[in-house]
Amino acid sequence: MELEQCINFVLTKAQHAVHQLFKGDLAPYGVTPGQYGVLRCLWDEDCQTARQLAERLSLDGSTMTGLLDRMEQRGLIVKKTDPRDRRALQIQLTQKGRDLKVPLEEVIEKANQKVLEGLEPEQIEALKQLLWEISKTN
What we know:
By secondary structure, this protein is an alpha+beta fold. The protein has helices at 7-26, 33-44, 50-57, 61-73, 95-99, 101-116, 121-135; strands spanning 48-49, 77-82, 85-93. It has one domain: Winged helix-like DNA-binding domain superfamily/Winged helix DNA-binding domain (Arc Repressor Mutant, subunit A), CATH 1.10.10. It has a three-stranded antiparallel beta sheet. Strand 2 (77-82) and strand 3 (85-93) form a beta hairpin. It starts with 6 loop residues before the first helix and ends with a helix. The model has no long low-confidence stretch (mean pLDDT 94).
């Protein structure tokens, strides 16, 4: 099979292009795409455990720990012991983390528009559906 015909190669190239775009657009706010994912989860529901966040974002524990440590150092979140389970960490937004919601939502909306520019609405929905189907294969 030709490299350009391998689904892994095509998906990796597409993911890299999208990641670089998002990384560049988020950089002025000092936030990475991974950190945006954590913030998005916490804007939806604050005070989640590190495990809940890792599961929703499909990240392993060590990746999540590093991500949360850097976010805590930047003052975007605080880590507290979960009152229901002292072994678990509960992640809570700081005011600085909450204040990024509106500007970052605008950045992400524009970045999504850039990525999908030139596609018809039906193509966008079909693409999303196909990617979700592929993500369920393992």
